[in-house]
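Weekly structure sync, notes
Attendees: PL (lead), two postdocs, one rotation student
Agenda item 3: pending single-chain targets
PL asked that the sequence for the first pending target be pasted directly into the notes so everyone works from the same version. It is reproduced below exactly as submitted, 143 residues in total.
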Amino acid sequence: MALARVVLASGRPVDLSALHMSSTYGGLLEGYPCKPLNDRRIDALVRMAGRSFPGAQVHLIPPPREYPDQYAGAFGPVEVLPSVACVGSFRAEALDPSHDRALYRSRLTVVWFQPTACVPSGHDAEPGLLEVNWDTLAADEEL
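Predicted structure, written out during the meeting:
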């Protein structure tokens, strides 16, 4: 059973089968949000997604980056990502029409950021998530 069903902009429904949410800056004890820190955080999430869902393609939706008017420290200007980092495993009908619908599903792991800890559902999701090009990014797997 899926956690939620998301309807992509293409009209394809995809089922969210697993979701990991975390605070983007949870555990930041010192320093400030900046490009080097954010790039490391994003890379770590993508690696974690690959380990958590082996065999699935991993797609990163590039996060929006904000630059508040604050003092630039030694690592450059302050750069802020949305406050919630998400890794989701999605499944849908097989891409290849010759595959038996009972034996195959398509699958994709997606990494994205959003401002709140809301589970995406229906048409209510971050725009980048809704715009995922499932046909080119996902891959079929046999159940």
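Discussion points:
- The mean pLDDT is 93.
- Strands lie at 4-7, 13-23, 58-60, 84-93, 104-114, 139-142.
Action: rotation student to compare against the earlier draft before next sync.
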